[in-house]
């Protein structure tokens, strides 16, 4: 039977806390560097196929606010917490007036006006858009999708990680 001294157990717990805090700091550092509250997102639907498939991991940049037609942006809809990844199909304003955008999924027949908040006909670039896509890694985000669709899997992984922390030897 495996037995750990209180000192070994404390060391393992602190190592686990170090890993979690390092991941959090990296996330916050990326958020600051990219000027985006969510610098990495996962594609959750097939609305952007063939450009991006479900499960693709997207990297966002929000420093250049002069978004062009054809650029893929990620935006939040007021009152909903799931970001949407779609392409800009029309621009309004810019310069001295606020830049407003109309978006559409590549695999969708209609533009996104039905997805926007009630009474909203376009996106405000500064308020609604959280970033433009600058890179992606195919299918890596499927882990996130599986964890959100199957809550028991998340609990099993957390339990497994806890057991590994306790059983790991230095």
From TrEMBL:
<dbReference type="InterPro" id="IPR019533">
    <property type="entry name" value="Peptidase_S26"/>
</dbReference>
<dbReference type="InterPro" id="IPR019756">
    <property type="entry name" value="Pept_S26A_signal_pept_1_Ser-AS"/>
</dbReference>
<dbReference type="InterPro" id="IPR001733">
    <property type="entry name" value="Peptidase_S26B"/>
</dbReference>
<dbReference type="GO" id="GO:0006465">
    <property type="term" value="P:signal peptide processing"/>
</dbReference>
<feature type="transmembrane region" description="Helical">
    <location>
        <begin position="12"/>
        <end position="30"/>
    </location>
</feature>
<keyword id="KW-0812">Transmembrane</keyword>
<comment type="similarity">
    <text>Belongs to the peptidase S26B family.</text>
</comment>
<keyword id="KW-0735">Signal-anchor</keyword>
<keyword id="KW-0645">Protease</keyword>
<dbReference type="GO" id="GO:0005787">
    <property type="term" value="C:signal peptidase complex"/>
</dbReference>
<comment type="subunit">
    <text>Component of the signal peptidase complex (SPC) composed of a catalytic subunit SEC11 and three accessory subunits SPC1, SPC2 and SPC3. The complex induces a local thinning of the ER membrane which is used to measure the length of the signal peptide (SP) h-region of protein substrates. This ensures the selectivity of the complex towards h-regions shorter than 18-20 amino acids. SPC associates with the translocon complex.</text>
</comment>
<comment type="function">
    <text>Catalytic component of the signal peptidase complex (SPC) which catalyzes the cleavage of N-terminal signal sequences from nascent proteins as they are translocated into the lumen of the endoplasmic reticulum. Specifically cleaves N-terminal signal peptides that contain a hydrophobic alpha-helix (h-region) shorter than 18-20 amino acids.</text>
</comment>
<dbReference type="GO" id="GO:0009003">
    <property type="term" value="F:signal peptidase activity"/>
</dbReference>
<dbReference type="GO" id="GO:0004252">
    <property type="term" value="F:serine-type endopeptidase activity"/>
</dbReference>
<keyword id="KW-0256">Endoplasmic reticulum</keyword>
<keyword id="KW-0378">Hydrolase</keyword>
<keyword id="KW-1133">Transmembrane helix</keyword>
<protein>
    <recommendedName>
        <fullName>Signal peptidase complex catalytic subunit SEC11</fullName>
        <ecNumber>3.4.21.89</ecNumber>
    </recommendedName>
</protein>
<keyword id="KW-0472">Membrane</keyword>
<feature type="transmembrane region" description="Helical">
    <location>
        <begin position="129"/>
        <end position="146"/>
    </location>
</feature>
<dbReference type="InterPro" id="IPR036286">
    <property type="entry name" value="LexA/Signal_pep-like_sf"/>
</dbReference>
């Amino acid at each position: 039977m495996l037995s750990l001294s209180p000192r070994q157990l404390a060391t393992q717990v602190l190592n686990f806390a170090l890993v979690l805090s390092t991941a959090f700091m990296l996330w916050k550092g990326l958020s600051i560097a990219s000027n985006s509250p969510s610098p990495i997102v996962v594609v959750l639907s097939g609305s952007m196929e063939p450009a991006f498939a479900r499960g693709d991991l997207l990297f966002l940049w929000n420093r250049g606010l002069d978004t062009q037609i054809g650029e893929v942006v990620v935006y939040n809809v007021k009152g909903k917490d799931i970001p949407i990844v779609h392409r800009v199909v029309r621009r309004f304003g810019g310069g001295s007036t606020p830049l407003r955008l109309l978006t559409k999924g590549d695999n969708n027949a209609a533009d996104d006006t039905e997805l926007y908040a009630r009474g909203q006909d376009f996106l405000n670039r500064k308020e609604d858009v959280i970033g433009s896509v600058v890179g992606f890694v195919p299918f890596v985000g499927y882990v996130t999708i599986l964890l959100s669709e199957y809550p028991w899997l998340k609990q099993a992984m957390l339990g497994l990680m806890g057991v590994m922390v306790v059983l790991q030897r230095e």
